[in-house]
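Hi Q.,

Before the meeting this afternoon, I wanted you to have the iron/sulfur cluster prediction in hand. No need to reply - just skim if you have a minute. The sequence and ligand are here:
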Amino acid sequence: MHLVELLAARSRPAAALLMTLTRRCPLSCAHCSTASTMAAEQLDAAPLTAFVATFRPGDRPDHLLLTGGEPLLRPRLVKDIADLARAAGTRSQLLTGMFFARGGPVPAAVADALAAVDHVAASLDVFHEAQVPRARVFCALRGLLDAGKDVSVQVTGLGPDDPYLADVTGDIRRTFGDRVPVLVAEVRAAGRAAQWLSAVRHDDAPRGAAPSPRRPASPCAMAAWPVVAFDGTVVACCNQDVVDGRAGHLPGHLRIGHVAEDDWPTVRRRVVGRPLLRGIRAFGPQYLADALAPAADSGAGCAGYCDTCVSALDAPGAAAAADAFLRRPGTRVLEREITRLVEEGGADGFLARHTVAAYRGLAALGAPAGGP
Ligand code: SF4
Ligand code: SF4
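Predicted structure with the ligand bound:
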């Protein structure tokens, strides 16, 4: 499974499920968005495997993304889940910090887990390299490639001009002869990075700036793939504050369910059909909040994109107002057309919004000819 196949499905509701298997991690990256440590929490394995066991060939996500923390701290769980998913026709991707490449033989259980998934994505940046040398990461990736595994590298830098990005991507291309796709993004101000990133970047927009009176539609593709959070709660998107419940409380429209209480068909139905999520995907939270303001007592009081989603759209009456708004014939036409355009944008649309422009083309390295 090539990286662009996954990215091409990014805006399709319930095309994938992200599952966090643990918050624990043996590394301690300074930019870690999940603030992972070895003492962090993790859910029992049973509810996670039981949830994946509810996937059916006729009703399952196309892709399952296993992440953490470091999911390979639970290699048997990775293998069990990947096997269950494959039996239903779901392909799996695992994101790892490559701790197992630091030295010594790879434990057999970790090797089994790596063999069980369809795609291995390795994180690489200055913070990871301080703990796992680049040469060791390349050596481990070479072994996976030689075994026929699809791999990719997720590189992060401090900004588009960070010289590290040119250095590491050039090295990856030379080492692997352009066979390994690379996703290049900027460090996000979440988790441990939130404590220092704004001091490094001087171009941050002023906080609390007044919102413009009319906020344009700006679809949120992140509201397409549900995420299993560290405690088993299923939430609507991968915004780390939402996953962590740091928004104070989890707004009703962003809480999809729980792996111990709900099955995949229920989660899929809620993601696809919930009016507020449909509106957020098609129009974005700010446009939607403005459109709903009279009936939902929600308005333009929140300046930020996600801030508006977790506050204004959580107002009493917002869900009913969104339902009425989306039933209007004109809105339905617009929703259909925007959804079509966003889905047609595919991988390119995702890359344009969420990655560093100068390195966008690297995501397609090694893609099969005529692929998505
Ligand atoms: S490897 Fe990933 S989860 Fe672990 S500390 Fe680094 S960024 Fe966080
Ligand atoms: S707008 Fe809402 S659904 Fe989209 S990423 Fe932000 S919090 Fe999540």
